[in-house]
Design goal:
Blueprint (H helix, E strand, L loop, with lengths): L14 H29 L13 H8 L8 E3 L14 H10 L24 H14 L6 E6 L6 H13 L3 E7 L2 E2 L2 E2 L13 H4 L2 E6 L3 H16 L5 E6 L18 H8 L3 H11 L5 H24 L6 H6 L5 H15 L4
Parallel strand pairs: 1-2, 2-3, 3-7, 6-7
Antiparallel strand pairs: 4-5
Helix pairs in contact: 1-2, 1-9, 1-10, 2-7, 3-10, 4-5
Length: 346
């Protein structure tokens, strides 16, 4: 893993390859741009804590590119949503609502197959496995792609969910974005397993370790896992090895624990810069395309921010997203809230 350039050689590029590669690079540029815009908004005091994606764009965008948004689900944690543009602009809008503390953040449109952002480490993995198992029982098409970090693989939720996924052959892809650090704990101090992918052996599922800075390699590994899951061959644990080039969150100071030389060695393997060089050498990218991609990313972010800030605050909206149908008790609470808002019942 000496360079972030993908394995495909520029000389092999044909027009279809170049268009495909440009699309992946544009998605990666968007992810970093949107993450940087969120970071800046937090520093301005306009939103709450965020977790920058810097360095992990190839792992997130590459895996999402292997999915079909019409049938497949993405279950992120908190760092990945800016890289899920493939699933529609509603993901960015609801990410902004989440970081603004808006109670509508979890109310995704029914046709957007993405779970909302959640903060508890590994807590989304049992949900993803349950979703996939339910899809299999209902004979619904599609698979579930669940994201988590290396720190999550030290949690009980990971082992319990992975074990169940293997037993029921759930159509789920467990994608560990191994960025080297669980906040300030290096991965070498988390496990003696040698790799995260090796943990697949314990639960009897397929496991694969891939260069998480190679967007094409990540997409290929995820596509293979998706084919296995869709064919009823069960789940796959993918470990995408990459590096977190920024803070864990905007509340973190990585200079207190990340060795400067280690960070610099990974900055030299920046997945976006490496892929961009690859496309430039193939004659598929230039400064004009770079500028256009950045401007388009800014326009989409500005539109999502304006929509988020204009979203009305419904004090009872949490009732609509708690259950498929509100319980009588929740309806009673809704009436209480509405009466309080109108001054009735005093």
């Amino acid at each position: 893993m000496a360079d972030a350039r993908p394995a495909v050689e520029p000389e092999a590029a044909n027009p279809a390859d170049r268009e495909d590669w440009r699309g992946l690079l544009v998605e990666m540029i968007r992810a970093r741009h949107w993450s940087t815009r969120l970071f800046n908004l937090q520093r301005q005091g306009r939103i709450g804590t965020t977790a920058p994606i810097d360095g992990e764009e190839a792992a997130v965008v590459g895996s999402a590119a292997a999915m079909d948004p019409a049938t497949d689900w993405a279950v992120p944690q908190y760092r990945e949503p800016v890289g899920l543009g493939r699933f529609g602009d509603a993901v960015l809008l609801h990410t902004l609502l989440y970081h603004s503390g808006h109670p509508d953040a979890g109310g995704y449109p029914a046709d957007v197959r993405v779970f909302p952002t959640q903060i508890s480490i590994a807590a989304q993995i049992p949900h993803a496995v349950g979703l996939a198992w339910g899809m299999r029982l209902r004979e619904e098409p599609g698979v579930v792609l669940c994201y988590f970090g290396d720190g999550a693989t030290s949690e009980g939720d990971f082992y319990e969910a992975a074990n169940l996924a293997g037993v029921v052959r759930a159509p789920v892809i467990l994608l560990c974005v191994n960025n080297g650090w669980a906040i300030s704990t290096p991965v070498r101090e988390q496990t003696a397993a040698g790799s995260v992918a090796a943990k697949a052996v314990a639960v009897g599922i397929a496991g694969e370790r891939v260069d998480g800075n190679d967007v094409l390699a990540v997409r290929a590994a995820t596509a293979a896992a998706r084919r296995r899951a869709a064919a009823g061959e069960g789940p796959t644990l993918i470990e995408a090895v990459t590096y977190r080039m920024g803070p864990h969150t905007t509340a973190d100071d990585p200079t207190r624990y990340v060795p400067a030389e280690e960070l610099e060695s990974w900055r030299a393997r920046d997945p976006i810069a490496g892929f961009r060089r690859h496309l430039e050498e193939a004659g598929a990218w230039d400064a004009d395309r770079q500028r256009a991609a950045e401007e388009e990313a800014d326009r989409r972010f500005d539109a999502a921010l304006a929509a988020a800030e204009a979203t009305p605050l419904r004090t009872d909206c949490f009732i609509d997203s708690a259950y498929a149908w509100p319980t009588p008790e929740l309806e009673r609470q809704r009436r209480t809230i509405q009466d309080a808002a109108t001054g009735e019942g005093r």
